[in-house]
Design brief:
By secondary structure, the protein is of the alpha/beta class. Helices cover 41% and strands 21% of the residues.
Length: 350
């Protein structure tokens, strides 16, 4: 507050905070034992503040392990914009698609652990350890969690002229007519594929899986009537629903969706069913805790931006901005759930 120190005190300034420490009356500067601990603590704070001040030293690179133009890419770019405001440096999105997210993820896992290279994690990061016999990195040891950014349900859709108008009716038909109903996905091991496999396991039905090389091709054949149904993100199906081309029957979360409260949850008839799209931020393992804290604060800041809120709402997602510990626990639960599905239905990668 600008006041002068009293006699027998010296002044240390730690990141804008003035703290007084007592010295011996003879001016020797020797510290009294109890106060030595206080000053050592202040010294540690000063060191931590210095380390904090070094981050970020340059633009932060956010790796998206998918091609440009998809949902993950759009979410990452909106997140990056808000994070840049908080960090004071550009946050640059860099797309490194391929191998079911492994190419981009491996790049980040092998990057310096200084917080300047991050990856946008998704559903694939939790299921890949079960799908691949060998990964280029140990997922549990390769990354430091930053934050679960957002999560939300997928939507089960059929053509608007389909005979199925209610989720319960479709489920009962599937139980009575094994393998007569088909569902499309963007490829083996993807969220749409595993959503169908989980339904088969928990509801005791047999559905025919029809994999495609991309969500766009899969959606085209659902719209064309070649395949009966598909599990897809809200953003992917919303335009077709508005145009009267698709009908939504149910959602894959275990709670009703605020945006469509009349749409039932699959779990209402199939207890335990849960499939979510989710997006989280990871750094290389060994990233300093203070840098992790700074990055998490940047995510939280981005989550308050109106543009970010609108983008998440348009994608049918709920903003989380959870702690690093919450993201670690979430991924662990997801990995355990999907490991059981992959083992029960031997699934190979295209």
């Amino acid at each position: 507050d600008g006041a002068s120190p009293t006699p027998g005190q010296t002044v240390m300034q730690v990141k804008g905070t003035v703290a007084a420490t007592h010295v011996q009356p003879d001016g020797s500067g020797r510290l009294c034992a109890p106060r030595r601990q206080i000053v050592l603590g202040l010294g540690a704070s000063l060191i931590a503040a210095t380390a904090w001040a070094k981050f970020p030293e340059r633009p932060v690179k956010l790796i998206v392990p998918f091609a440009p133009g998809g949902g993950t890419d759009a979410i990452a770019r909106e997140l990056a914009s808000g994070m840049a405001l908080a960090l004071g440096v550009p946050v640059v999105v860099d797309n490194k698609p391929g191998a079911g997210t492994l190419i981009g993820s491996d790049f980040v896992a092998k990057s310096p652990a200084d917080g300047h290279v991050l990856v946008m994690a998704t559903f694939a990061h939790a299921v890949n350890p079960s799908l691949y016999a060998k990964l280029p990195f140990d997922f549990k040891k390769a990354f430091a969690p930053i934050s679960l950014v957002a999560h939300g349900p997928n939507v089960l859709v059929v053509r608007s002229d389909s005979a199925w108008r209610q989720w319960g009716d479709l489920l009962e038909f599937a139980r009575a007519h094994p393998e007569e109903l088909s569902y499309a996905s963007q490829g083996n091991g993807t969220s749409a594929h595993l959503a169908g496999e989980m339904l088969c396991r928990l509801a005791r039905v047999n559905l025919k899986h029809v994999p495609y090389r991309g969500a766009g091709l899969a959606m085209m054949d659902v719209l064309g009537g070649q395949v009966d149904m598909m599990f897809a993100t809200a953003a992917a199906v919303a335009p077709h629903i508005r145009q009267g081309k698709l009908r939504a029957l149910a959602i894959t979360s275990n709670e009703r969706w605020a945006a469509q409260p009349d749409l039932p949850c699959i779990a209402e008839r199939v207890p335990g069913y849960l499939v979510e799209s989710w997006y989280g931020l990871l750094a290389p393992a060994g990233t300093p805790p203070d840098v992790v804290t700074s990055l998490h604060a940047a995510v939280a800041r981005s989550a308050t931006e109106e543009k970010f809120k609108l983008k998440m709402a348009s994608e049918g997602l709920t903003i989380s901005a959870g702690s690093p510990q919450e993201l670690a626990a979430y991924i662990q639960r997801e990995e355990a759930r999907w490991m059981r599905i992959v083992k029960d239905h031997p699934i190979s990668i295209d």
